[in-house]
Write a structure and sequence with these properties.
CATH superfamily of the largest domain: TolB, C-terminal domain
CATH class of the largest domain: Mainly Beta
Radius of gyration: 21 Å
Strand order of the largest sheet: 1-22-21-20-19
Oligomer: single chain
Helix content: 10-25%
Number of strands: 25
Largest sheet: 5 strands, antiparallel
Strand content: 25-35%
Distance between the termini: 41 Å
Number of domains: 2
CATH topology of the largest domain: Neuraminidase
Length: 429
């Protein structure tokens, strides 16, 4: 199977270019594209490469921003004697500095020895030279935490980390001592996903959700999701807002200067300060699979990532929604964490290979990206998820490479998620 196909389906399941930004109409079709990706996977397993190709073509038509779909379709074309079409798609990935294993993928065997393909590989090798400005902060040697969220209380220099495996939220104090702080739960185990410290109101917000990485996950039980507010000093639960419909879910959280709580996920939502009602955020266009979320210091504009598409910005007074375009051959696909910093955006982009930490320069209107700067690129020692900015530094959390030996109490399919929890820091200037 193409190198990233199984991973693509897994990532979209729980996270839910040079490449044109997805047109507005595509947003209504991104969810449908996932169905065709599943059909493509089934066709591949059955050896039906014509069906594999047809399903991927449909999926890419529905969501042209998906780099992983482009790569897998290139593999499908190579499998069905359409080498020119395969090379065309692969060139876009090379321009975007993305590699899903081109050189060694057996599905691209028909391109081996092709002069154009060989030149692409040489260019790609140059494009993938690492960029590193990060410093290691600490490593937790406990396997299987599957870290996702990170938040920092500047007043006490405490760092909070969430586990997708069991919903625990850990705190590391200024002396480096770790202890359990809280747990997200609603009648059963949930994953701790997005975290955010509201220092003014002294609340740690945490998103909880049930999905297949949670310990003792029951696939027959209705999926649940909510956001939990813990007292920043004691860890006592003070607020809890659950999604109304089983199966719907939240992903990340941020707080506006007003105290309004914004939630990404199946839909953009807000809990107004002083209210306990979850309301939809007014947008002119639907944003499928919203993930990272950031708000401007004046509270007027919200930025949100659609993991399988890119970044949208929403004028919160009018609902006007603009999809940002990446300059040059860059891509905005696969951004997880998203943060505001001095008029720019900072993104943890782990949906592409190699992953990258990027600073996105915005124009004065805050509706266009004028430049992308790589802060970290192609670091093989960590796969990050999200970050937290303190001053001019971003602290980001992720997991290291999977261990060579899998402890017996973990299922084999958990192997890719069992690396040690690592926190790194990187300067933003």
């Amino acid at each position: 199977m193409p190198a990233n196909f199984t991973r693509l389906l897994c990532v979209l399941a729980f996270c839910l270019a040079h490449l044109p930004a997805a047109p507005a109409w595509a947003q209504a079709d991104v969810a449908a594209a996932q169905i065709h990706l599943q059909e493509a996977g089934q066709a591949y397993r059955e050896g039906d490469f014509a069906g594999f190709t047809n399903s991927l073509e449909t999926a890419l038509d529905l969501n042209p921003a998906s780099l992983a779909t482009r790569y897998n379709l290139a593999c499908a074309y190579a499998r069905t004697d359409r080498n020119d079409d395969a090379l065309r798609l692969l060139q876009g990935l090379v321009d975007a500095r993305v590699d899903y294993g081109m050189a060694d993928d057996p599905d691209l065997a028909s391109l081996h020895g092709n002069a154009e393909f060989d030149e692409m590989l040489r260019t790609l090798d140059n494009n993938l030279q690492p960029v590193s400005g990060s410093t290691h902060r600490f490593t937790l040697d406990q396997l299987g935490l599957i870290p996702e969220g990170i938040a920092i209380d500047q007043a006490t220099s405490r760092t909070f980390l969430g586990s997708m495996r069991n919903g625990d939220i850990f705190v590391i104090d200024a002396a480096g001592q770790m202890s359990k702080f809280a747990n997200v739960a609603d009648h059963g185990k949930m994953a701790a996903i997005g975290l955010f410290v509201d220092a003014e109101r002294k609340v740690l917000w945490a998103v909880g959700a049930t999905f297949n990485l949670v310990e003792d996950f029951d696939p027959e039980a209705p999926a649940r999701s909510g956001v939990f507010g813990f007292n920043l000093t004691t860890g006592q639960l003070e607020h809890q807002y659950m999604a109304d419909e089983p199966g719907s879910g939240f992903n990340d959280v941020t707080v506006a200067p007003s105290g309004d709580l914004y939630l990404s996920g199946d839909a953009l939502s807000v809990v107004r300060d002083g209210s306990d009602v979850i309301q939809p955020v007014k947008t002119r266009q639907k944003i499928f699979g919203s993930n990272g979320v950031a708000i401007t210091p004046d509270g007027d504009r919200l930025f949100v990532t659609s993991y399988p598409v890119g970044i949208a910005t929403v004028d919160l007074s009018s609902g006007e929604t603009v999809w940002l375009e990446a300059p040059g051959g860059a891509t905005l696909y696969g951004i997880d964490g998203l943060y505001w910093y001095e008029g720019d955006l900072v993104g943890v982009q782990n949906g592409v290979n190699p992953w990258r930490l990027v600073r996105l320069r915005l124009d004065k209107s805050q509706t266009a990206i004028t430049d992308i700067r790589m802060l970290e690129f192609a670091n093989e020692n960590i796969t990050p998820t999200t970050g937290a900015i303190v001053g001019d530094i971003i602290h980001y959390v992720g997991q290291g490479p999977q261990p060579e030996v899998i402890p017996g109490h973990f299922a084999e399919n958990m192997a890719p998620f069992l690396g040690e929890t690592i926190v790194m820091t990187a300067p933003l200037n």
